[in-house]
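User: Predict the structure for this protein chain, please.
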Amino acid sequence: MDSSQTTKMYPWKEIIPRMEEIRAEATDQFIAAWKNAQSRRTHDFTWHETMGYVIVKRDDAARRMVLSPRGPELLTEMGLVFDPGSVSTHPQDPGAADWDIAAAGPAAEAAETRWRPAHARFALRCEPPYLRAFSLEHLALQTTQCLRERRRILKSRLDPDEMLLSISQFPLLGTGTYIDHQGAPNGPLLRSQLLPDICLNSQPPFTLEIGGIVDRRGVVPYTGVPVFRDTNTVWPFIDEDLPADPYKGGILTQSCESNRDSACVMGNTTVATATPSAAAAPADLNANGSPSDAPWDARLNSQPPPLSRPLLLEPPSNKNCVLLDSPLFGIGSGGVLRVTLCAADLDEARSLHDQLAPISAIMAALTAATPIVKGHLVNRDCYWDVQCSTVDDRSAQERGIVPLTTAKGTLLKSRYGSIDMYLGPDETRADPAFRRVYNDCHFTYDKESFWKMKEDHGIDSLLALHVSRLFVRDIHYASENMLGAGDTGSAMSGQEHFKRFLGCSRQNICLYPPNKCTSSGWEVEFMSLEAQLTDAENAAFITFIVLLSRVIISYRLNLYLPISLMDQNMARSQRVNAAGEQLFFFRRDVFGGRDGKSNGSGSISKRANLAPSRNIKSTSTGAERGKRGMNCSGVYAKAEYVELSVDEILNGSEAFGVTGILNIIFTYLSTMRLEYDVEQALRRQLLLVKRRASGKLCTLATWMRNFVRTHPEYQNDSVVSQSINYDMLRAMNDIEEGRVAAPELLG
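Assistant: Here is the predicted structure, written as structure tokens:
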């Protein structure tokens, strides 16, 4: 990459005095974007994907795999000029192309790919050059080919002993020898006892963000990941790589022996104050507490009061966990798969944001791909909670460890995590399917920005609340342009301040305002997918998300679920073989509630109570779970939501009268009058999703776990050795390149 750029960057400690000024400017930028969008024409629906890859170096003589830190070198060879002070690149509007994108074909599109660096030197990111117009023919016949051609271009620049894998995390990262030219840890950039500085991209945005997370938190953010207990696993398991005293590193893990849904990682603790209470209403609400006079329902959505005791309900422990000590374990160090949907307008974007959120846990379970962390089989299949924990920059005040004095409030979640609230409809466009009781969890928001947006500029309460929620956190660095010290004529989007805050708060579903530079509209990004091994798998899940977005809008699906239940689903999705063994709360009738009189509003009592008991094992059938019922009151007793398997949610269940999301998508396709080859290609892609949901195909996490546990050198002790990792990654590369069949994974 070009290192000649001279944009000066300022770290978190230096911009603290101007943080409120930056917040105010970010608020103004969002207001300007919102106002500009009011007068703009309705956009055609477009979309794009973001893919990430990991570069691995193979040593056949030693039977060893290590990471290759040549990412920046490869990007330079491909002509990338990287400006550290610029806002992230974004695909252009299709109308900006001077050639016919659809007619050009996969090879021409791949040649124009926008390559981007990642935080780690061994990882790369890429996006298409232009937003993709919604074309079922392109989705069916070219998506897979575009991904393959893009991968081919990158692989053509690798050395003969290098491989390119789309995996969420390198299995041995942090233990033994795992990167070429490894060097000693405890460097000045990462300040990690496990990772040397060669792992980190040396460009300022990446070094300053990692440093800002550690500096703002005040201690290195330890994360504990529960070890999978095999027959010969030493128990209790103690990770000897880091200090035994967890307080020395700032570890905040829960006991792994707790029977909670939450992951055994920092930032996802269950707290007593999370239950909404009328007594906890914010002071700025009117005395009558009327939702029409308040930012949201005061009874069900109050800010958490100051804590009289710490958030931690039990002592921190590193027992039975592998420990991680750097934000780089969770940000920019592995492959990614994200789908961004550019909506027609804000109303459509709000609907997509809300309706896709409940499906995110289901897709996390279905794409689970990370059963190995730091050379050990772990008691998780997904990396979501680990990622959210490793980048947690909350201070001791924000975590409730010490009383509030200077922080804006207690923050119950990491800056990465599941959404805090639904956006609902604009107040002028009532939607009976949305009820304020769905926003049933606490969060803190910035009052100054909220009232400025709502009272001074007329932005509706829910949208203003959603945006002001971002401003309770700090950004980790700023460019001289943001502080008014640089060339004001430099190329900026007019949204740099606001986008910095967006980048510091990533949820499973993200909402982005219209992009001034690319003329794109309101965007919704689906974040919970894990990267899959092959391009065909990645294309299948991209196709599913894109088609689901069209079905949500066309059929006005109602997938609303209380945020508290969605959080439980996200926790369950992390568990081992969650796609086959876990139950998830889901709305039974996804067509109801739009008229305000169906089961969506909980008003029809003639429906049988099919909601299952939370304690029923996942091996029971849907009918058995329905017979058991649920001894509780409130909305749950009305069978508005039931606990279903991934198979039942996607493929349907007669026992519960559940249609199945895939069946709805197939119905949608049958109404589109497609060419035979196009429809069959789409159905083949969706068949992979369908068979994985039914259990006929396994997840990549299950495949990797089975490979390790059946390897002749495995000692049943949860340890993944260098030679086992070598054989596994070689097999995965052979599968990706089509040299080895994997019917249990791909069919």
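The mean pLDDT is 81.
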